[in-house]
Amino acid sequence: MSSTVRGGARGPGYASTQAPVRTQHRGTPTRSEESTTVTHPFLDLAPLTAAHFAAIEKRVAGLLATEQDVVITQGEALLPLEGCIRGGARPGSTALNVVTGPYGQTFGNWLRDCGANVVDLAVPFHTAVTAVQVARALAEHPEIDFVSLVHAEAATGNTNPVAEIGEVVRSHGALFMLDAVASVGAEPLLPDVWGVDLCVIGAQKAMGGPAGVSAVSVSGRAWERIAANPQAPRRSYLSLLDWKERWIDGGRRALLHAPAQLEMLALEACVERIEAEGLDALMARHASAAAATRAGAVALGGGLSPYVHEAKDAAPVATTLRAPAGVDASELVARALAADPSLPLIAGGGALSKEMIRVNHYGVDATRGAVRSSLAALGSALADAGRQVDFEAARKAVSEAWPSE
């Protein structure tokens, strides 16, 4: 859906339409005046129909290669993540919550708030969980009926082997919820093949889309579990069941509420762009960005080192680096951003802010240019801090890890 825009005195992006307005004076038309009405491409759009909304859902389902129901939720991905947990977890049930980063910690809090008994399987943030560890936890707690896992933790730079873990969870019979917000578009994601019952995605990272809209694929047994849970949200913005009963079962003819139109149109455009590039090409671009960033950071020197120890455990969506001993990561990042605040650099969150640097090479920043510029800025900041760096070695390492076509 588009809006025709003409430039004018207000500059591009605005259109002025002039219409005569007749002014009445003592009942007699005396003159014609001109009034200017200003339109904007973000405003005065035709309503987003239910059919259009459903068509976008279908395209998102195609992106996930899923036959399951896909619900597009009108908010950032924390909305469906919390909805999945509050719908799938019930008082007295036992959940295995895998913690490989801060989002896993958040899920554990939600699960406990729902009255579930929670078994936390926590691993160091510099690594990934293994299917063997998950299998061991399930064997030690056969009562577990819900498993929550983050696929890729952009905040810590690790990614977990979901295909192998899904096989273990499926054999155990537990419901499997996956946070794939950071992984979708950056690495393979196959919820149906992997036995994922609730797969949540967001468009704002590797997909290069908006942050204000998200989606979740829901298996048949997940719907049964939520419907049987008297504590599951109902008539609530957190309710997936409302979408099932009023939208899906109703033939997708009437939306529950006014859709977030701009975000929906941006999501549609985002999926169109992925389709044009090709999902395999998009994932390859992210993998190359990760490999080049890791190799370039090691070659740069100055005391930088990969935060995630093994390359196989490193997420393609973002690379985390450990700051040199005696150097505050947040201060280093601030120096690096001083010349170019647009670089995809950020210090770690919370307790990690002093030791972790994150290069967010996702979406439009999954490019050689973004990787090179980020490493150059970090190198300059390290040099200013008195560290020895090798810019040429870093440039060469990036080129070797991500050769030009």
Keywords, please?
405 residues, alpha/beta, 13 helices, 15 strands, 20% strand, globular
Question: What this model shows, in words?
Answer:
- It is a single chain.
- With 405 residues, the protein is of the alpha/beta class.
- The protein has helices at residues 50-63, 78-88, 102-113, 131-140, 162-172, 191-194, 220-227, 240-248, 261-277, 279-300, 329-339, 368-384, 391-401; strands at 15-25, 28-39, 69-73, 94-99, 117-122, 144-150, 152-153, 158-159, 175-179, 198-202, 214-218, 305-306, 319-322, 345-347, 356-359.
- It contains 13 helices and 15 strands.
- The strands form four sheets. Strands 3-11-10-9-6-4-5 form a seven-stranded mixed β-sheet, with helices on both faces. A four-stranded antiparallel β-sheet has the order 12-13-15-14, covered by helices on one side. The protein has a two-stranded antiparallel ribbon with strand order 1-2.
- Helix 4 (131-140) packs parallel to helix 5, helix 10 (279-300) packs antiparallel against helix 13 (391-401) and helix 12 packs antiparallel against helix 13 (391-401).
- The radius of gyration is 25 Å and the shape is globular.
- Residues 1-31 have low confidence and may be disordered.
